[in-house]
Description:
The chain is 43% helix and 33% strand. The chain is α+β, with helices and mostly antiparallel strands. The N and C termini lie far apart (112 Å).
Amino acid sequence: MDERPAWKTVLAFIVPVFLFIRLLYTCSNNNSSNHYDLKVKQGFQDTEAILKKRLERQTTTDRLISVKMLYSDYKALDSLSPSLKEDFGIVKVAKDSLVDIALETQIKIPKNYYLQNNHDELLRMAFKSPDNLNIFIHDFESKDDIEQSFKKLKSDSNLQKYKVESTIDGVKAISYKITKDNKRFNGYALAFKSNDINLFYEFESSELSIEKLKMRVMLFLSENMKENK
């Protein structure tokens, strides 16, 4: 019987080895590719999380700036460009507008008031009158009592001269002073709790005395608080 040619013997050995090496290479590539895909995916998720946090911080900053801008003089707000007003969610009301603030209650925001639209989980709405009266409505769930919650709300405003003027049917009338950008404001707030929800109607002015501010508050409420029909 003829001997098997040497080259066939060598080839019979080389082919399986070559196939084995190729298989290892393919598996290695797959593992490398999978590892690379995981790294890319993780990198994307990390970047997405960072961008989300930055967006949240920027949104919070915009809200704070928007509220802070209401403490500017009315004429200063008038001088802002339309694009800046839009950026910070400040809109001049073109006509008297009714807004629901409870199931049975509406508030009228008179024509030419500035309305601040950048709300958060605490602030329901805020607006400013042509005679520089700032009005804020806060409502939020809290286990704290009314006075504790109010002091926390004003904790960044150098709250002073805090005084509960009266309490009628669970509604507290509170007078106070705050400072915004080195400017002093007198404040008068009506505060009450309903089903663990703390509600605050705050009126602040850098021009009116506390006594005149009280009268201004009563006038505003009598003219602009409406029963929701």
